[in-house]
């Protein structure tokens, strides 16, 4: 699989990232097999957050690393900002915290759970309404100087907020994680429906896609198979019957499954986005890993887009 330089940095990363949000329930053996399969297929980058599984995902991954995977062969990224999140999704005590002390404490916890000396990339998980960018800048400097974090990025920030944080921090922000997929293509809907009265014209991200291309920021598309906000997976969902049929047809033409087509659809976009996949099923993972070999024609790409229910004005 081709690698890209993340946000123009020296991090050479695969276009597919293995998301580790759902690994808490895997056995150690299954996880080891899963990571090995991912690496054999070309994945070299793994996505975490301090809150995934209440910390258990990082802990499990750290243990898996000790079974023969060389730290320097992979890139590990993690995120912080969300406090009092529970694995069960109870949001009653949750809040966001991008204070200097919380960022520094979070990284110490992340490194301990992952049992590693450094993160290749730290991202701020969500914008904190009370964030003070000077504090973020001080935290980033400390983390970089101590060697605990090599590079920095954001997650779920819009283009304007991206500029806002970038103005204060010395390190180039190289990535932004945003939900994106065939059933959640808001970033491109708003571009193609500009100034129309249609719902798709709503600009929810401040033009992040164009911002990323203009400023050499890598977009990492999360939850690529989902629709809504974790409302479900498009695969085999009767609400997405036409989409499933079209992805199957296109998949047959390219000799891959529709799982690979859904990811190939994201990779076909010339912004060179990465796709963070979250499957814990190793067979599915192997199917999805065929995506980078598929080059969808423009006609196929639009056919899939429209089959998901999106319109062209
Ligand atoms: N920055 C953020 O705010 C943010 C938010 C959410 C996620 N993320 C990152 O993005 C990663 C991916 O998120 P996600 O897990 O929601 O993404 P996803 O890849 O869209 O969804 C994976 C989930 O869908 C299930 N699934 C069922 N049928 C499937 C099929 N045919 N093909 C593929 N998956 C199928 C998987 O089950 P099986 O395990 O049985 O395959 C798994 O539970 C996370 O691990 C995390 O690293 C970041």
Automatic annotation (TrEMBL):
Gene3D superfamilies found in the cross-reference section: NADP-dependent oxidoreductase domain (3.20.20.100)
One Gene Ontology MF term: oxidoreductase activity
Enzyme class: oxidoreductase
NADP-dependent oxidoreductase domain span: 15-306
EC number: 1.-.-.-
Xref: SUPFAM superfamilies: NAD(P)-linked oxidoreductase
InterPro entries (UniProt xref): AKR_Detox_Biosynth, NAD(P)_OxRdtase_dom_sf, NADP_OxRdtase_dom
Protein keywords: Oxidoreductase
Keyword field contains Signal: no
Alphabetized Pfam families for the sequence: Aldo_ket_red (PF00248)
The protein's name in its UniProt record: Aldo/keto reductase family oxidoreductase
Naturally occurring in which organism (per UniProt): Salinicoccus siamensis
């Amino acid at each position: 699989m081709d690698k890209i330089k993340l946000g123009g940095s020296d991090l050479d990363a695969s276009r597919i990232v293995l998301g580790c949000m759902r690994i808490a329930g895997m056995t150690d053996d299954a996880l080891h097999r899963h990571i090995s399969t991912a690496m054999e297929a070309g994945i070299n980058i793994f996505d975490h957050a301090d809150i995934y599984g209440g910390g258990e995902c990082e802990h499990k991954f750290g243990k898996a690393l000790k079974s023969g995977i060389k730290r320097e062969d992979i890139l590990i990224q993690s995120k912080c900002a969300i406090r009092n999140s529970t694995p069960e999704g109870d949001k009653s005590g949750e809040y966001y915290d991008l204070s200097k002390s919380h960022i520094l404490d979070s990284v110490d916890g992340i490194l301990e759970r992952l049992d590693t000396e450094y993160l290749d990339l730290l991202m701020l998980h969500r914008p904190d309404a009370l964030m003070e960018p000077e504090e973020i800048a001080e935290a980033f400097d400390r983390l970089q100087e101590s060697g605990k974090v090599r590079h920095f990025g954001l997650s779920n920030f819009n283009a304007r907020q991206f500029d806002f944080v970038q103005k204060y921090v010395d390190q180039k922000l190289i990535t932004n994680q945003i939900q994106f997929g065939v059933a959640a293509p808001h970033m491109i809907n708003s571009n193609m429906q500009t100034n129309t009265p249609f719902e798709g014209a709503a600009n929810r991200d401040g033009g992040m896609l164009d911002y990323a291309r203009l400023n050499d920021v890598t977009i990492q598309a999360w939850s690529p198979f989902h629709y809504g906000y974790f409302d479900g997976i498009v695969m085999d969902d009767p609400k997405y019957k036409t989409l499933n049929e079209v992805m199957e047809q296109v998949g047959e033409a390219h000799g891959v499954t529709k799982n690979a087509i859904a990811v190939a659809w994201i990779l076909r976009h010339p912004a060179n986005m990465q796709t963070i996949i979250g499957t814990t099923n190793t067979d599915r993972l192997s199917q999805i890993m065929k995506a980078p070999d598929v080059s969808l024609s423009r006609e196929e790409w639009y056919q899939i887009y429209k089959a998901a229910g999106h319109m062209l004005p």
